[in-house]
Amino acid sequence: MPIKQFRSAKRLEAGAHVALIAPAGPLQKPEELPRAQENARTLGWEPIVGAHASERTGYLAGHDRDRLNDINRALRDPNIDAIWCLRGGYGMMRILPGIDYDALSRTPKAIIGYSDITALHSAVQRKCKLVTYHGPTARETLTDLSRDSLQRAVVEQTDSCGTAPNAREINAGTAEGRLVGGNLAVLASLCGTPYAPDFTDGILILEDINEPVYRIDRMLQQLKLTGALNVCKAIAFGECVSCPPDGGGGGGGSGRSFDEVLGEIAHDAGIPCLAGIPLGHIAEQWTFPLGAMAKLNTRTRTLTVTSYTF
C-alpha cells in the first residue's frame, strides 16, 4: 500500500505575515510576547499578534471561544501565511472541534509549535493531510541550532534534522516513513478521538516532561493497545525531561529505566528505535515537518528529512 500523500504550505520567505497566537496555555512573563515578535522579525517575517494572545483564564490563555477565534481568523485571512504558537501548556484539545479545517485545506498555512500544540498538529494531519511543523514556540529564546533547523524547515524546506551523536540506539535498524507524533501525553489523550493522527507508515517522534517512567510505560502501552505501534515503521524519542525511574505509581520497589521501557515497546513492535534526539522541552531542538517523508538509521544516529511532499 503506498504511503499517503500530504501537502506542504508555501515556504515562509522574507516578508511573510505570521500570526502569533496562544491557543492553549497563557504567556508567563511580560517579556515573552516582545521576544516572540522579535524572533519573527529576525527571521524576516512580519508578526501579527492575535487579539487575545495576552489573555489568561486560569491555566488557559483566555476563554475557549477567544482562543478559537484567534486561530480561525488567521486561517481565514488570505494575508496570513503562517501560525506560530506562542506557548504550549494545556488547552488545545478543548477547541479542536471548532477549528476551520476547510479554510486551512483551501489555503494551506504553516503551523509551528510543540508540546500541547501536538493536538493541533494531529488534528490537522487527520483532517487536512497537511505538513505542519513540530518546532520551538515563538516565545522562546532561540539557540543557533534551533533557529537554523527552524529556518531549514519552514523557509528552505530541506533536511531540518541530521545526526544526533549523543542519541542512544534502543533497537537497531533503518526505516523510511512519514513523520508523525509529538508529545506522548497529548497523543495518548487523543486515542479514540477523531483527532488522533494516522500512524500508518509513520516514523513516530515522541517527547515528554515531568512524567515518571511508569506513566511513560502506561502511555506507550495505550498506543500499543490501540494498534498504533503495529503500523509504525520506527520510533525516535527525544528528551524525557524530569522523567525519573519509579517503582510503579510511587509505590516503592526497584524502578525501571526509561530505556528499558522504550526498548521493550520497540522490540515487541519489531521496529527500530532511537532515543535522545534533539526533540522536546529543551533549548536545542530540531524542527520536524510532520507529514513529510524521512529516513531513520539507528547505527549512524541520523534522522533525515527526504521530501516535504510525496
Describe the protein.
The chain is α/β, with parallel strands linked by helices. It is 28% helix and 22% strand. It has 8 helices and 14 strands. The strands form 2 sheets. Strands 6-14-13-8-9-10-11-7 form an 8-stranded mixed beta sheet. α8 (258-269) links the parallel β10 (234-241) and β11. α6 runs parallel beside α7 (213-226) and α7 (213-226) runs parallel beside α8 (258-269). The model has no long low-confidence stretch (mean pLDDT 95).
Rg calc: 18 Å
SSE order, one letter for each helix or strand: EHEHEHEHEHEEEHEHEHEEEE
Overall average residue pLDDT: 95
Class by helix and strand content?
A: alpha/beta
What distance separates the N and C termini? 14 Å
Keywords:
310 residues; alpha/beta; eight-stranded mixed beta sheet; six-stranded mixed beta sheet; 22% strand; globular
What's the gist of this structure?
The protein is of the alpha/beta class. It has helices at about 30-40, 65-75, 100-105, 120-130, 145-155, 185-190, 215-225, 260-270; strands at about 15-20, 45-50, 80-85, 110-115, 130-135, 160-165, 170, 175-185, 200-210, 235-240, 275, 290, 295, 300-305.
Give the SSE map.
Elements: E1 17-21, H1 32-42, E2 46-49, H2 64-76, E3 82-85, H3 101-106, E4 110-113, H4 118-128, E5 132-134, H5 144-156, E6 162-163, E7 168-171, E8 174-183, H6 184-190, E9 202-209, H7 213-226, E10 234-241, H8 258-269, E11 273-275, E12 288-290, E13 293-297, E14 302-307
Parallel strand pairs: 1-2, 1-3, 3-4, 4-5, 8-9, 9-10, 10-11
Antiparallel strand pairs: 5-12, 6-14, 7-11, 8-13, 13-14
